[in-house]
Amino acid sequence: MALRIVAGLFLLAGLLTVVDIILKLIRGHLDLNLMLLCLWIGPGLLRHDPTWRKWALAILWFIFFILALLFPLALLRPPLDFQFFGFPATPAPFVATLIFLLAMFLLTLWQYRVLIRPDIKRLFKNGPAPGVLPRT
Predict the structure, then answer these.
(1) Among 10, 34, 44, 127, which residue has the fewest nearby CB atoms (within 10 Å)?
(2) Helices in 27-131 by DSSP H: which ranges?
(3) Is the pLDDT of residue 129 over 70?
(4) Rounded to an integer, what distance in angstroms lies between the CA atom of residue 12 and that of residue 136?
């Protein structure tokens, strides 16, 4: 079940990235985003494809890196200005920013821990053929 939730979160991130790209295109900006890979990572995790598990872990490490940069920025330069789906959001209050960053860190940590669990890693050793979803 945890793997399905992780796969669903990756698929959701991919879909939100598509929305973000479309909204930016409407505003006249072309923005290709690494998170677009999540559209393939989610289904790849459900197929137990080891390549997509590696991509998922790489994306999670990238998110850890970004969060490691944002935490000090949030502490040193509150409030942070950010964009939500390509539109400038009002500066977030200091506490809300820290809560959001902490929640993102905990969610990313949970996803990472699921993907490195021994029982989950075994599923990816000899996964089913491409295009075949696991039976429930």
Answers:
(1) 34
(2) 38-46, 50-76, 94-116, 118-123
(3) no
(4) 21
